[in-house]
């Protein structure tokens, strides 16, 4: 397959475990919602090709682990992000209170060139709207949306705002997104501490990734809990025919 030129926008979604980060991403990209909860370990991303402001680009959306014991696996994916989405559950005050911790951790780990003006967007997915908006205002008027991944309410509007903010942070040049090979770092969930590394993907190879040929298919075997957890890095892709696009 020949390489294609696309504008790549990388978006990171952060928030406590169970607030609906994966569900929001799946609703936006796949128009699907599942009631079965599977906690993410490490990171997982979906891509969506979108026509916006007369430009064609690939929106690369990264979902990361919310559980504290697995957060260290996800921070390697923060770098190179164009926008960070902070998600909380409107029915769980603690998830809202932790937004500032997620924001600060992102700025430390991602090391953006202009941390004071780096674009964030806050989504309340299931605290008080008034309190959330006040917090966003105190952090430089961060855009705030209340969404429902289950019903699809406000999801498209939120991601349109995310896209606009990511574009503001994008240098503007097109990059070549070539196919590459990747293997997956796998955790055996029979014992959460038992690590089975197959291959580690270089950190600097995560930014310019569009098409992936997985060398080995790993079946999620051995899960003994209903809340099965995504292992390390899990990849899915969606290529969308957008009105006005020739590809």
TrEMBL record:
<dbReference type="GO" id="GO:0005774">
    <property type="term" value="C:vacuolar membrane"/>
</dbReference>
<dbReference type="GO" id="GO:0005525">
    <property type="term" value="F:GTP binding"/>
</dbReference>
<dbReference type="InterPro" id="IPR001806">
    <property type="entry name" value="Small_GTPase"/>
</dbReference>
<keyword id="KW-0547">Nucleotide-binding</keyword>
<dbReference type="GO" id="GO:0012505">
    <property type="term" value="C:endomembrane system"/>
</dbReference>
<keyword id="KW-0342">GTP-binding</keyword>
<keyword id="KW-0653">Protein transport</keyword>
<keyword id="KW-0472">Membrane</keyword>
<dbReference type="GO" id="GO:0003924">
    <property type="term" value="F:GTPase activity"/>
</dbReference>
<dbReference type="InterPro" id="IPR005225">
    <property type="entry name" value="Small_GTP-bd"/>
</dbReference>
<dbReference type="InterPro" id="IPR027417">
    <property type="entry name" value="P-loop_NTPase"/>
</dbReference>
<keyword id="KW-0636">Prenylation</keyword>
<keyword id="KW-0813">Transport</keyword>
<keyword id="KW-0488">Methylation</keyword>
<dbReference type="Pfam" id="PF00071">
    <property type="entry name" value="Ras"/>
</dbReference>
<keyword id="KW-0449">Lipoprotein</keyword>
<protein>
    <submittedName>
        <fullName>Ras-related protein Rab7</fullName>
    </submittedName>
</protein>
<comment type="similarity">
    <text>Belongs to the small GTPase superfamily. Rab family.</text>
</comment>
<dbReference type="GO" id="GO:0015031">
    <property type="term" value="P:protein transport"/>
</dbReference>
